[in-house]
Amino acid sequence: MLNVITHGDPGGKTPLLIAHGLYGSARNWGVIGKRLSVERQVVAVDMRNHGQSKWFQTHSYDDLAGDLAGVIGAHGGRMDVLGHAMGGKAAMVLALKYPGMVGRMVIADIAPTAYNHTQIHLIHAMRDVDVSGVERRAHAEAQLGQIDDPMLRSFLLQSLDLQAKNWRLHLETLASEMDK
Fold first, then answer.
1. Closest by Cα among 150, 15, 128 to 71
2. What gap in Å lies between CA 24 and CA 110, rounded to an integer?
3. How far apart are CA 98 and CA 95, in angstroms?
4. In the chain, what percentage of residues exceed pLDDT 70?
5. Would you tell me how many other CB atoms lie within 10 Å of the CB of residue 71?
6. Average pLDDT over residues 137-166
7. Can you give the pLDDT at residue 42?
8. Would you state the pLDDT for residue 113?
9. How many whole angstroms separate alpha carbon 106 and alpha carbon 80?
């Protein structure tokens, strides 16, 4: 089962499942989840190989959709779904494979098409950070200097666990499965 962050109480409207994008986490959706939970329960997940969820050796959209189906099954069997980027593609596969589990769906920042670009350069940048000596995020940010966008550096650093001295991303699997 995936790690989930739940806001609001069950009951009333159909619950909303939020699936984040590549290199994201459920925590990224905290403010939005809390605001949406006024009317319904909101369940944000850490997708496999991200955040506090279990790490696997695979990372395909079929895998991700199966994981989401498991969360929906554990929360009553039917949810509305909001999927962002990678989470959006996973939501599309979920709706195709398990149509009875999905009510309404919102897909953001991705289309049902194949893309020719990759995000592997960000994995290389994160791997290049010497996390063993990092005491503050600013130290890691300096090592991510090859990433020009300061907001992107800040976003990636949200997945750095300073106490454990590692990333909350399974970089090896994400790299080997990037083409999926």
1. 15
2. 15
3. 5
4. 100
5. 19
6. 94
7. 98
8. 87
9. 8
16 beta partners = 42, 80
Residue with tokens 């995000």: 119
Cβ proximity of 45 and 20 under 8 Å = yes
User: Which amino acid belongs to residue 149?
Assistant: D
Print burial letters for 87-108: b (CB count within 10 Å at least 16), e (below 16): bbbbbbbbbeebeebbeebebe
Write phi, then psi, for 108 (nearest 5 degrees).
-120, 140
Pairing of strands 42-46, 3-7: antiparallel
Which structure tokens are listed for 10?
């069950």
- Encoded tokens for 88: 């959006």
> DSSP letters of 146-160?
T---HHHHHHHHTTE
Question: Whole-structure pTM over 0.90, yes or no?
Answer: yes
Does pLDDT of 138 surpass 80?
yes
Of the listed ranges 86-95, 97-106, 141-150, the one predicted with least confidence = 141-150
H/E/C letters for each residue in 13-27? Answer: CCCEEEECCCCCCHH
Q: Distance (Å, rounded) from C-alpha 31 to C-alpha 149?
A: 23
- Determine the residue type at 12: G
